[in-house]
Structure formats: structure tokens, C-alpha cells
Design goal:
Layout (H helix, E strand, L loop, with lengths): L20 H14 L2 E2 H11 L7 H16 L4 E3 L2 E3 L25 H14 L5 H11 L9 H14 L3 E2 L6 E2 L4
Antiparallel strand pairs: 1-3, 2-3, 4-5
Length: about 180
């Protein structure tokens, strides 16, 4: 059995009925490195790392079974369409590199959007709600016309407010620790 570039045994039995331990470990390591990660992005990355041209339904089901096994074991958290390690706080937000594909609004974890918003408020406290949303739209490489961007970010700001993490609603937002 050969090794892949990240040191895991080559996964040859991706069409079996239950995921091989090596596949389960691979899935865990990918989620550990990339989480929170949207399910579709996770499958794209998995396909690339395993050098698969496409995902057949049996392969996709097997990878999904590995995620479910990890979730049952408490090693992975599944939150809607996002995978991450359990109880891992989102400490950073990923900004797209210039010229690379930007993630759609749906593929950015709510925790990551809230981290970006809290960081923007922390960096420049006292700004109104609309300015913070506009900066977050730019941060993620979106435009004012990106479908769902403003409403998702607005919902995230409401959640931060309801959790007591920001105050000064809506005209002068500050982090709760700063107020």
C-alpha cells in the first residue's frame, strides 16, 4: 500500500459498504485542517486529495458514512451543512486571495461570518450597522449585489447582539468587552 503526500495510506476501497479506518482518519484530518467547512467544499477537497475525477454515488455515500461515524464517535460536529471539530471556537475568518474563487455566502460558516463581524467591530468600534455589514461584504470578496450576503450578515449581527457580544445597536456598534 502506498502513502499519499500527507502521510495517509492510499484509500483504495472507497466503494465498500463501510468506510475503512484509513478513510475515516483521512476525513477526520481533512475536517481538522479545514473546518468549519461546507459539505460541498469538503467533497470537492476530498475528491482532489484522493485524485478522483468525479464522485459516484457509492463513493459519496462512503465518505458521508465516514463523517457520520466520526460524528457518532464525537470526533466531528455536524451543524447543518458544515463540518468541524466539536466545541472548537471559530477564531479566524478566511478572506479570499485576489484572483481566486470566492466562496458563496452559503459556503461560509455562520460562525466564521460572526468572527469576521466581531473582528471588524473590534478593529473600529463605534461604527453603524450598515458600515460594518458593507465592510464584511468586502472582506469576503462579495459585492453589494451578492445574493444573500447582506441578509446573512445582518442575521449574524442580530445573533451577536442577542448573545450580548456587541452593544450600541444599531448606530454605534462596539464589542461587549469594549463597552
Amino acid at each position: 500500500m502506498t502513502k499519499d503526500p500527507i502521510g495517509l495510506p492510499e484509500v483504495e476501497r472507497v466503494t465498500g459498504k463501510s468506510p475503512a479506518p484509513a478513510l475515516v482518519e483521512f476525513v477526520h484530518r481533512l475536517i481538522s485542517a479545514e473546518g468549519p467547512i461546507h459539505e460541498e467544499v469538503f467533497f470537492l477537497h476530498t475528491r482532489k486529495v484522493l485524485h478522483l475525477k468525479s464522485f459516484t454515488t457509492p463513493k459519496r455515500k462512503l465518505i458521508r458514512a465516514a463523517v457520520e461515524q466520526l460524528a457518532e464517535d464525537g470526533r466531528v460536529a455536524v451543524d447543518g451543512e458544515f463540518f468541524d471539530l466539536p466545541d472548537r471556537p471559530c477564531r479566524y475568518a478566511r478572506r479570499p486571495f485576489p484572483g481566486l474563487t470566492k466562496r458563496t455566502v452559503e459556503r461560509v460558516a455562520p460562525a466564521e461570518r460572526r468572527t469576521a463581524l466581531a473582528g471588524l467591530i473590534h478593529d473600529e468600534p463605534g461604527r453603524p450597522y450598515g458600515e460594518v455589514v458593507a465592510d464584511a461584504v468586502r472582506f469576503f470578496g462579495w459585492t453589494a449585489g451578492t445574493p444573500g450576503a447582506k441578509s446573512a450578515l445582518a442575521g449574524d449581527l442580530y445573533r451577536l447582539r442577542d448573545q450580548g457580544r456587541i452593544t450600541g445597536w444599531p448606530d454605534s456598534l462596539v464589542g461587549a468587552a469594549s463597552s
